[in-house]
TrEMBL record:
Residues 8-17 have a biased composition (Polar residues). CDD domains: fungal_TF_MHR, GAL4. Residues 49-82 form the Zn(2)-C6 fungal-type domain. Its main location: nucleus. SMART domains: GAL4. One of its GO terms (cellular component) is nucleus. GO terms for molecular function: DNA-binding transcription activator activity, RNA polymerase II-specific; DNA-binding transcription repressor activity, RNA polymerase II-specific; transcription cis-regulatory region binding; zinc ion binding. It is found in: Nucleus. InterPro entries: prtT, Zn2-C6_fun-type_DNA-bd_sf, Zn2Cys6_DnaBD. It comes from the Eukaryota. Residues 652-663 have a biased composition (Low complexity). This is Zn(2)-C6 fungal-type domain-containing protein.
Length: 696
């Protein structure tokens, strides 16, 4: 690299001051020593190595070939210099010096000089692109069309074996745009995708497999949660944080076509758990990680926080909500982020000169801290738990107008929605006199209207900034509306009938809109629901429960039951398509929803349905968990006949084609004709093979 910088310096000087040098000047390296090597008292010349060989601790014959260059410098094409007082420098200090020199040289390099120089020194193209990309991340640029490209027309056709969905250009990736549309493919040059074979425990991933998994992650998972700087590629991410590398591989295996039986996914799952457990229990903290550091699995840094965030949004496959680790791991991510100081990001606008490494770390810290709060609030709201968030100046300073840190617009919109969820939880659950901390209904109604107006304002802003093809941010916005309006179920007997009915009708329509939106994007892209985070699938399930409860309630005379039933069926289908393994949470939720409809109908027929709920401890998720409690209670109270018990417990009763109810059941897909709903629901509830096993 030092030789390339020397050529870069010489190129700038010669183009700006003197005419181009002749070819003879570069035919062979010359020794620049003007004095002969020192002589011993015996009269023999002292054996002294040149600067380059001494720095690398290599054998040198400069004392024999003086004044010509040594053999190694001739072979490497290096400048051979003899200095008796030269002392070796540490590589880190030398790298820092090179970075500083390189930054100064870039400032004086014009675009025409850059193009000419890159054509002569191709190895500089990658480094220049990376440096300019890093600089673009944090530079104070305004507007959506600020882009930088290097030699794109020439490199596009020079890289073989590139998928047709990728265009080979050197420009900042989707995180650098003012807003990155989900329809636009994130563009990765081929050299970025290259990675050596990696092994851990009994698992070995070849270069081709790593490349395919990384493309899988960049195409389908990164647009949902753009927390990782994917422009670095798998090899550089591994050097920065092996834990992040293996989590990316683990998440990508969820839908990897070459692992259709999910053998590799199940084998890697306990290994990744072990890695993250080591970071939690015995971390080695790195406040300023670099690629020159030794890659260790239990390093705690900004990149390990990113690994926990991905692991929280796409957790290991389980069969029940009680075994889901999302809430636990996102709490670990947030506390780890505070421990390494991400909640107090360093300022890059204090007037002091910053190195590229400092600028890059400032951007990564600010972005990761914002997404920590987003993921924590999203997961906590879906499960009905208090959220570990800190929406304060540490976040708002990063996105204020004029900030030198460039945060993608998609992340800013997600942050607004998450902040709104935090406001809802703290506003409507702040009564210290109530055992559930719920605000009194007389105060709650005006607060609900005020929060609805606030959400309407966010939706209006998003309608201008959000591309029509970004279903993920729209899904999050509708989820926030559903969670807000569920508070109309709290203490419903103390709310005026008109206000209650109006609020629940709005909730019914919001739940249908959420499911219909997911169905719409699923029709546009059949892979849409397959890559949704687990909490998003949980939101679909919660919306279906709200629809089923309100259709089989005194409110059925007001709401559109036909559209509601279609949305309920769509939710069942979406949950089934989101399933990765049989008996996972998505698979079980699909079956539970189908049988829950019958339970709701039976309760309605018995005049036992109501608009009130018994569980009020889970905030906006209380309605959902009340429906699950109702299902368990109903299944437990129902006395099943011996025949239905055999069907529910998987009995081996034989049946004839003419009289079989099981064969007729397989053909029936209608909600109203589901038979033995209680026994089937009981069987589904008891079947949890993917949950953790007890450890003796």
């Amino acid at each position: 690299m030092s030789h390339e910088l020397h050529l870069l310096n010489q190129q700038i000087k010669t183009q700006s001051v003197s005419p181009p040098p002749s070819m003879e000047e570069h035919t062979a390296p010359q020794s620049t020593s003007s004095t002969p090597p020192p002589v011993l008292k015996s009269g023999k010349p002292k054996r002294i190595a040149c600067v380059e060989c001494r720095q690398q601790k290599s054998r040198c014959d400069a004392h024999e070939k003086h004044p010509g260059p040594c053999t190694r410098c001739i072979k490497k094409g290096l400048k051979c210099d003899l200095k008796s007082d030269y002392k070796r420098t540490y590589k880190r200090a030398r790298i820092a010096e090179i970075e500083k020199e390189f930054t100064e040289l870039k400032k004086s390099l014009s675009s025409s000089q850059a193009a000419d120089l890159i054509s002569k020194i191709p190895s500089l193209a990658q480094h220049l692109c990376q440096e300019f990309t890093s600089h673009f991340h944090i530079s104070n640029m305004k507007g959506a069309d600020n882009r930088f490209s290097l030699n794109s027309s020439e490199t596009n056709n020079s890289i073989p074996n590139t998928p047709s969905i990728y265009r080979q250009i050197d420009q900042p990736l989707s995180q650098n745009y003012h807003y990155a549309s989900t329809a636009e493919k994130t563009i990765l040059p081929e050299y970025v995708l290259h990675c050596e074979q990696k092994s851990i425990d009994v698992i070995t991933l070849s270069s081709e497999t790593i490349r395919a998994l990384y493309i899988e992650y960049v195409e389908h998972f990164h647009p949902i949660l753009p927390v990782v700087d994917v422009s670095k590629g798998p090899e550089r991410l591994y050097k920065l944080c092996p834990a992040l590398f293996w989590v990316i591989m683990f998440v990508s295996l969820r839908r990897f076509s070459e692992d259709s039986h999910h053998k590799l996914l199940l084998e890697l799952s306990p290994i990744v758990k072990g890695i993250l457990a080591e970071i939690m229990i015995s971390p080695i903290t790195r406040y300023n990680p670099t690629e020159e550091d030794e890659p260790i699995l239990n390093a705690s840094s900004v990149f390990s926080v990113q690994a926990f965030l991905l692991y929280s949004f796409w957790p290991p496959v389980t069969s029940s909500l009680s075994a889901d680790s999302s809430y636990t791991t996102v709490g670990t991510a947030l506390f780890q982020a505070i421990r390494i100081g991400l909640h107090t990001p360093a300022s890059i606008s204090d007037g002091q000169q910053k190195t590229p490494q400092q600028l890059f770390m400032a951007h990564e810290s600010a972005k990761t801290w914002i997404i920590c709060n987003i993921v924590s609030q999203t997961i906590a709201t879906s499960f009905g738990f208090p959220a570990f968030v800190q929406f304060d100046s540490s976040i708002w300073n990063s996105i204020r107008p004029g900030s030198n840190i460039s945060i993608p617009r998609s992340i800013q919109l997600m942050m607004e929605i998450a902040h709104f969820g935090d406001q809802v939880a703290k506003t409507l659950n702040s009564n210290t006199l109530d055992p559930y901390a719920l605000v009194d209904p007389t105060e709650r109604l005006p607060l609900l209207k005020l929060l609805q107006r606030r959400l309407d304002e966010i939706e209006i802003r998003m309608s201008h900034d959000l591309p029509s093809d970004d279903g993920f941010r729209r899904f999050q916005l509708l989820s926030a509306r559903v969670h807000l309006l569920t508070y109309y179920f709290m203490d419903s007997s103390r709310i005026a009938d008109f206000e209650l009915q109006r609020g629940l009708v709005n909730l019914y329509n919001a739940a249908m809109s959420l499911i219909n939106l997911a169905q719409l994007f699923q029709e546009k892209d059949r892979k849409f629901v397959k890559y949704l985070p687990g909490v998003y699938v949980l939101n679909i399930w919660q919306s279906a429960c709200i629809i089923g409860k309100l259709i089989h309630s005194p409110l059925k005379k007001i709401v559109d039951t036909g559209s509601g039933k279609q949305s309920y069926l769509a939710a069942i289908s979406l949950a089934a398509k989101a399933s990765i393994l049989k008996h996972d949470m998505a698979h079980r939720s699909s079956g539970i929803m189908r049988n829950m409809w019958q339970v709701f109908r039976q309760l309605d027929d018995k005049k036992m349905s109501s608009l009130s709920i018994n569980i009020r401890t889970r905030m906006s998720a209380s309605v959902f968990f009340d429906c699950l409690y109702l299902l368990r209670d109903q299944v437990g109270m129902t006395k099943l006949s011996n025949e239905s018990q055999k069907v529910g417990n998987g009995g081996s009763q034989k049946s004839t084609p003419g009289s079989s109810t099981s064969s007729r059941t397989r053909k029936q897909r209608s909600l109203s004709n589901t038979v033995n709903a209680e026994s089937k629901a009981r069987k589904i509830i008891r079947t949890i093979p993917l949950d953790p096993q007890p450890i003796s």
